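Input chain follows. Return structure tokens only.
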Amino acid sequence: MADRNRRNRRNQKSCYICIGRFDARNTMHIHGADREQIREIAIAWREEFDRAPLVIEEDTRVCFSCYQSILREIELMQHPYSYKLNVLRQTRNDSCFICNNRHDVQRLALDCKIDVFVRCNIYMPDTVRSCNAHLDGRGFILRPLLAGLRCLRRHIVIPRDQVKMILEAMRNHSLANERLNDVYDFSDDEMYTLTSLTKEQFNILFTYCDGIPGRRIGRKDLLIFLCKMRQGLSDEFLCLLFQQNSRRDVSLTIAAVRQSLMMRFVPENIGINAITRRQYIQNHVTEFANGLYNRQPDVPVAIAYVDGTYNYCHKSSNFRALRQTFCRHKGGHLIKPALV
């Protein structure tokens, strides 16, 4: 019995692709001048399986299953309607593609497969099944599980009717998620609600958004900044609203827009240096004020009136701002702006 086992092990060959051991009669040679295309596909598939590179020799073989898959791949490469996509890698077609459970499994909905393709660039065939435990209330794969999906670069033929359904679903998916990503689609009322600016004013302000070192300021970045200033929303809420990757990205965007506006917009429009004395007299001193306060009306002078008020504000989560805005006289948190 031991001699027979040793003899069987000697007759077994290792598959170049899946590294499984099979009887020599169930393996195929891939060495030879007429099998160059087979070798190229085998090398590519071995890399996709994260195997160490291995030189193909005269005795290098692949198992019958891998050989049939290679022949099917070559046939699909010549098909006029084949697509080379990242296809989901799974063990069996009749079991869950995550846990290989064969009980209480169901085929995935088209919207679920579209969601996976958009987020992970992985195509899921019709035969893919999953347990209910791996799906959320919408029938979509749970978000943490998407990072663990594995795929293989394969040629695949998708039926025409299915291609049409996929394109329509992707179109609906894109339209449903682009509402706050395309600033051009906003009306004046919608833009004013978010930013307190009209679309024309927003476009004028955007001309001041010069690029800063290492970053270009886009319209969406300015929209996030103005929405933060106008609505006072948290970074977490803005991250969800504008579909950013993380709260840190929102914080960096706001800081970048602020830095950009400080370079040119603030010096040219805000502060004493933004206007000359002659411009102030010409644009802001009325004839009535000049005749009332100027002893020599023929020689216009700068006339300014300073007025202040109290603007109550909510308690800040920042301790420094909390102390600076508290007024003992009024017994609350407020800001005292002065208008010239």
